[in-house]
């Protein structure tokens, strides 16, 4: 038995990270549809789910708001088996709020809460 550890080669370390060139077979070239996972926002306000995101938004929260967010995340995990990160939870909540705003306009929950501040 060799005592030497096998390390990955350069081709494994520096593999291409871009999409492969289109093939002649249109069925093979069709991109895969993202799979909707349970817990995403339903209706018009769909969140992006687990995909690579192009943009980043930084949100500042109080300690209490962050604890409430973590409590909600852990409750979903415990009661529904939903394993998700804080970012996904926030994306779903924003999608729901925007869908409600789109549907109800000034009578939406978002407009009501923003008017109360």
UniProtKB/TrEMBL annotation:
Residues 1-56 are annotated as: Disordered. Residues 16-41 have a biased composition (Low complexity). It comes from the Bacteria. This is Cobyrinic acid a,c-diamide synthase. It comes from Mumia zhuanghuii.
């Amino acid at each position: 038995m060799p005592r030497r550890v096998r390390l990955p080669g350069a081709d494994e370390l520096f593999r291409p990270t871009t999409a492969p060139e289109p093939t002649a077979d249109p069925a093979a070239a069709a991109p895969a549809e993202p799979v909707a996972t349970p817990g995403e926002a339903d209706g018009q306000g769909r969140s992006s789910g687990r995909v690579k995101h192009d943009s980043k938004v930084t949100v500042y929260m109080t300690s209490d708001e962050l604890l409430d967010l973590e409590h909600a995340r852990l409750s979903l995990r415990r009661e529904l088996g939903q394993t998700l990160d804080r970012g996904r939870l926030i994306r779903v909540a924003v999608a729901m709020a925007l869908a409600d705003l789109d549907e109800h306009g000034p009578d939406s929950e978002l407009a009501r809460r923003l008017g109360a501040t």
